[in-house]
Amino acid sequence: MSVQSDGLWQDGAAALAARLAGGELSARAVIEAHLNRIAAADPDLCAFITVAADEALARAAELDATLARTGQPAGPLHGLPVAVKDLTDTAGIRTTYGSALYADHVPATSDIAVARIEAAGGIVIGKTNTPEFGFGAICRNRLAGPTGNPFDARLTSGGSSGGSAVVVAAGMAPLAHGTDFGGSVRVPASFCGVASIRPTPGLIPAPGRALGWDTLSTHGVIGRDTVDCALLLSAMAGSDLRDPTSLIGDRDDGSETRLGATADFGVATVSQAVRERFAEAVERLERAAGPVAHRHPDCGDAMAIFRTLRAAQIRHAYGPLLDSHGNSLTDTVRWNIEAGSGITADAYLEAQAARTALYRRFVALFEEIDVLAAPACGVLPWPNEDGEVTVIDGRPVETILDYLGVTAIVTLIGFPVLTLPVGGDGLPFGIQLIARPGEERRLIRLGRMLEREAGFVHRWPPALVTR
Fold it and tell me: Which domains are present in the chain?
């Protein structure tokens, strides 16, 4: 199956939004075009757990009627199809969290991120595949998958927002929502050749989160370019007093951007193939945007911190589920929950103190630079059938999380990240562009320039290789 030369599904979100707002296109036509694209592409890719066709068409009819009556679009996302990761509640649309335990679960209310998408005129077209509860390198669970990479459906799309990245990369929706703990928006964007933003934690609030001050996980956005990502981010962003992390403002002062780069933060496990692709990307970055300082702070304890905090939080959240339904959970989910057993209060607090010191070392580095570039994953896409990453360049890794080192370290410090595809032949590869908290606008400015000047742009998969 190859990409066709026409069809609304090929248009970017910003371009579609302008045509929808002006009445040139109806929301129904746009939704129908993308439902047709889903019908053509998704059987090979398994990117959706649930396609909300009836709900999307009904919402499109409402929006078309409102525009005809008032002459005003519902908001900046008026009529745009948006795919939502199936870890996030959608009122009236099945939400499974990737688990057979919730195969028939239909929430009564939507997460605030979804509610804001819909308030801005966006239409939820479906729920995208994710490993069970988001734990795993392969988008596979007992309900759906594995989700195939659109450049070769035998390869992984990345976890755990792989379904969302594939939907955008293959034209099944122009925009997709994701979530990111250790790299779950950034890695799939890199693997599928699209753009993403993991914002400063709190920019998209999570007022229902049990651990209100937790900043390890955040909602994120996926689009085919920086402008489209910024469009979805603007609809979802904004403070909420119920989330104590959501009160940060925009800190970008519009100044010239000083650049830095690191292939591995000095500690992350990164394959030779990724190092070579990253070196080429940094050369292009330097030609387009000016000198690049090769540096990073001391991150020697970062992965130990990440493993401790991640394991403790997962054990806290899912320990009761392991006790009550352990035999029904996948091996990866059980491993993730059991990794938190025996972590003491002292060990947890020591990890939090070390995380604070790591954050301050990054702050010191960012007195000399404004944006730090790094790879968006330690490896390139691998076959779905291989499962978790246990070996890199022929050497066993310590844990199945190690390939995420370059993204997990950034998770710890809570700095915002724009991920861009760098183009070129072969499998997609993306880089992280990391800025200070609250400087999403700086990243968006830089991203648009790099798309123009460095060719860091989405490319359509030349073919979808079927399993």
Answer: 8-300+348-453 (3.90.1300.10)
